[in-house]
Design a protein that fits this description.
Among the domains are: 3-56, no CATH class; 155-254, Tetratricopeptide repeat domain (Serine Threonine Protein Phosphatase 5, Tetratricopeptide repeat), CATH 1.25.40.10; 257-307, no CATH class. 56% of the residues lie in helices and 1% in strands. It has helices at residues 3-15, 33-45, 122-135, 139-152, 157-169, 173-186, 191-203, 207-220, 225-237, 241-253, 259-269, 273-284, 291-305; strands at residues 59-60, 66-67.
């Protein structure tokens, strides 16, 4: 048995190192096993430094060839570069289920996700990949990565809420409600999770149940636009136009440019066409109005004027 192999074998027996050795790195197929064995043999033999142990014969080059023992031994192993970190404290934005229409921005198709991160950074890698998939318009791939992250940290409310959010985007309201409820239970007053739970209930045809979650969301964060908008929509869907109007007016106080459109829509439903047109015209006089909001207001004025 070669001297280095003999030292390594004694190190395994003394330091209880698994037979398979340390996990390989992701660069060049090199492993840290030789370094680990030499360091362990230092303990086993009483050497003061790992550099005291020198091979007497040819060393093996990591690329497969032999190299002269006169060359200096490697002083360390390259460390893999970690991907950019994504904070697992970022709240996933809620989706407003609005009857006002709108267009989603076109995004390029998502590329296949290849996870090359080292084991210590797996959680950050899955969260980063999930976010990238979502931004590229691939909710299925995003959900897959978030579920993998959840396996590593099953009681993280932020990850649970991200999973709930992706299920909403995929139209799976029941699954979304399950995960958003778990997130809200783990973090009381978690506005985003409560809003997502409310949206899921509305999608399942339960506006009364939705109101319960959305009222809690507004109580936790009174000026949250998503919470106010969806609470107003829940009241409207349940036929309670008075509470819906009051909620949309609260939304308008936050500066949301869409809030007056919801107020005008309710007036139209109540047969108050002139009042609705007046609100639409007031919207058009608003400075820095988003183009989509302007288009909707102009379209409603045109439709009501032709009656």
């Amino acid at each position: 048995m070669a001297p280095v192999q003999a030292i390594a074998e004694r190190a395994r027996q003394t330091a209880d190192i698994p037979e398979s050795g340390p996990a390989p790195t992701q660069q060049g197929g090199q492993t840290e096993s030789v370094t680990a064995f030499v360091e362990a043999s230092r303990v086993a033999t009483g050497k003061t430094r790992s550099s005291d142990i020198q091979p007497k014969h040819k060393a093996v080059d990591p690329k497969g060839g032999a190299r002269s023992s006169s060359r200096k031994p490697a002083t360390g192993v390259d460390r893999p570069v970690k991907p950019p970190l994504v904070s697992d404290r970022i709240q996933t934005p809620a989706v407003a289920v609005s009857g006002m229409g709108g267009h989603d921005a076109e995004v390029p198709p998502a590329k296949e996700t290849v996870m090359t991160a080292p084991a210590p950074g797996l959680l950050e890698s899955y969260l980063y990949a999930g976010r990238e998939n979502d931004l590229r318009g691939d909710p299925n791939a995003a959900l897959e990565n978030y579920l993998k992250a959840l396996e590593l940290r099953p009681k993280d409310p932020d990850i649970l809420n991200r999973v709930a959010y992706m299920y909403l985007k995929l139209g799976r309201a029941g699954d979304s409600l399950e995960y958003s409820e778990k997130a809200a239970a783990l973090r009381p007053g978690f506005t985003s999770a409560l809003v997502n739970a409310g949206i899921a209930c509305m999608a399942m045809g339960s506006p009364e149940l939705a109101r319960g979650y959305l009222v809690r969301a507004v109580e936790a964060e009174p000026a949250n636009r998503n919470a106010l908008l969806n609470l107003g929509l829940a009241y409207e869907k349940d036929g309670n136009h008075e509470e819906a109007m009051a909620t949309f007016r609260r939304l308008a106080l936050t500066g949301d440019p869409e809030a007056p459109l919801h107020e005008a829509r309710l007036l139209e439903k109540g047969g108050l066409v002139d009042e609705a047109v007046e609100i639409y015209e007031g919207v058009l006089r608003t400075a820095d109005l988003p183009p989509e909001t302007r288009e909707r207001a102009e379209a409603r004025i045109k439709a009501l004027s032709s009656r």
